[in-house]
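Support request, please re-run this one:
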Amino acid sequence: MAVPVSLDDAKRQLKIELDDVSQDEEIQGFIDDAAAWIEEHTGHILEARDVTAHFGSFFDISFREWPIAADAVPTVTYPSVDGPASVTGVRAIVSRRPVRVLPWNGTRWPTVAADVGATVTIRAGYEDGDTVPGVFRRVMLILISAYDDDREGGDAFRKAEETAHALCRGLRPRAL
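Re-run finished. Output below.
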């Protein structure tokens, strides 16, 4: 599990006794929401998992999700007259973001109608919690405090979200 904030971490942040379990479900919801906020705003996947995206064509298959391991093998499928078909010989260019998915050198995408899209699945995210950038822990704790302090989504949450945006600014993909 790579999420950098545990239930005990969140309780300490909220100054709740660790043995008080009366709010655990709600606090876990805050943790999940803060992690989802980071993933949505930065493309960094905090817990490694398979990510699937649908593309309208084979022209530009790019993932904003990060990190993707250098040895990750994308799975590409598309609809054909004989049913779903798979593309073999596919690679991911992970040296920069967005990560591009391309056929191996010397091969090409299948010849299909222009409107035939592709479905691509690749494993993305942090496999180990120790590799998650530390700023994400700080951002999560800021957001968790704001969720607790400002349950109506007012000014305190707005300020916390502005701070979170500023802290995450350098960790967003440059272009997609």
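The chain has a mean pLDDT of 91. The longest strand covers residues 49-55.
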